[in-house]
Design a protein that fits this description.
Length: about 230
């Protein structure tokens, strides 16, 4: 890694990234070309060994590729936020934490492991414990990726806090009055970096307190009402 000052080696911090993010990009080999697909996941870190579980339909391109070539790559990012450069495009940047790992994928056939993998996925995604039975597990395919080598890095939010402008009362009020469609446009950056950064902060606050997701309007209304 070129930027050693941004490398993360602490397993606790790496696990925090994996537990906070909600989806990964799974890279597979399709003949002489890469194939990458976003997927929700569950993860398990034990004795320095990292395993990911994902689920999908029982037929499809992903499964065909894994059967033909089990080599796999996983990429995850969290805490991404724009650092404003004002009128100078060269000063724009971003805060982030990220993870990359290579390994081997396989399709789980054992019912007990499928149930365990799906329960783990639900815990990672929602922060709640769910009992998954064999009937539920039989409806989907479960992919397991065992990671052989990985790295993680970050540009912490606190290093760039001074570059972010705080939203004024007008911005807060505007977010409170938006419906889900309008809030989605904020989340994708269509309404500018300040509103986008503030909305992402609201989402992080909601997830940290309630351990799950809701629609954007609900999260905004809940967090803003608690700030008053």
């Amino acid at each position: 890694m070129r930027r050693k000052d941004r490398e993360i080696t602490d397993l606790g911090e790496i696990e925090a990234i994996l537990q906070k993010a909600r989806y990964l990009h799974l890279g597979l080999v399709d003949g002489d070309a890469p194939y990458v697909v976003p997927m929700h996941y569950g993860c398990l870190l034990e004795d320095g060994r990292l395993t990911f579980y994902m689920h999908c339909a029982k037929e499809g391109r992903k499964l065909d590729l894994i059967r033909a070539n089990p080599k796999a790559f996983v990429q995850i990012d969290a805490d991404e936020a724009l650092i404003s450069g004002g009128d100078d495009p060269c000063k724009y940047s971003a805060t982030y934490r990220s993870f990359m790992g290579s390994g081997r994928a396989r399709i789980i056939e054992d019912t007990a492991e499928k149930m365990g993998g799906l329960s783990l996925l639900m815990r990672t995604q929602t922060g709640r414990e769910f009992a998954v039975n064999g009937q539920m597990a039989a409806k989907v395919a479960v992919i397991r990726v065992d990671i052989d080598a990985y790295s993680a890095k970050s540009r912490p939010v606190q290093n760039a806090a001074s570059s972010q402008e705080e939203p004024d009362e007008e911005t807060r009020k505007a977010l409170a009055d938006m419906d889900n469609k309008e809030l989605f446009s904020v989340a994708t950056g269509d309404r500018g970096p300040i509103a986008q950064h503030y909305l992402r902060g609201i989402i992080r606050t909601y997830r940290a307190k309630y351990g799950n997701d809701a629609d954007l309007h609900t999260m905004v209304q809940t967090v803003l009402s608690e700030e008053e």
